[in-house]
Specification:
Distance between the termini: 46 Å
CATH architecture of the largest domain: 2-Layer Sandwich
Strand content: 35-45%
Order of helices and strands: EEEHEEHEEHEEE
Structural class: mainly beta
Largest sheet: 5 strands, mixed
Mean pLDDT: 85
CATH topology of the largest domain: TolA/TonB C-terminal domain
Number of strands: 10
Helix content: 10-25%
Amino acid sequence: MAELFRTIVPSRFASYTKQTLRFMTPKHLCVIELMTLEENNPAVDRFITGIRMRNSTDQVTPIEPGAETTSSNVWNVKDVTRRAIVVWKSEPLYTDAARAHRVVGTVVVQAVFGENGYVTDITVVRGLKDGLNESAIEAARNIRFFPAEKDGQRVSQRMLLEYNFDLY
């Protein structure tokens, strides 16, 4: 059973419409919150109506990273109709060795945000020592995103990512 709540959230700069979708399974409580400046946003409505819980009888074929090859065309940001949309990005772990050696700075990686929903081909453009490159690569590998589109079709997109490491 799903419930949808709509509330207006005032802020100092504008009022937002917040839609909260709440549903339960026997083992989980799921809450999705979407906020927009518009009171009625067709994209939010399409997103909410597109959510469907999987039945235990549904056939599922898991896709492992690399199991599905990305297209031979990897597009740059300026060449796509809609850029890849990152919905979740974890912070990399600060390694004990880097902390002991007081290593600070930024790791820059280049990655392909695949049309299949996986981040692949991760290479370090500018790195740091003591395991921070590997930590940034692992964080990049775990990004969740909606693939880029070109003319309505999902495509792979090349992007640069920066991970900052600071000691406080």
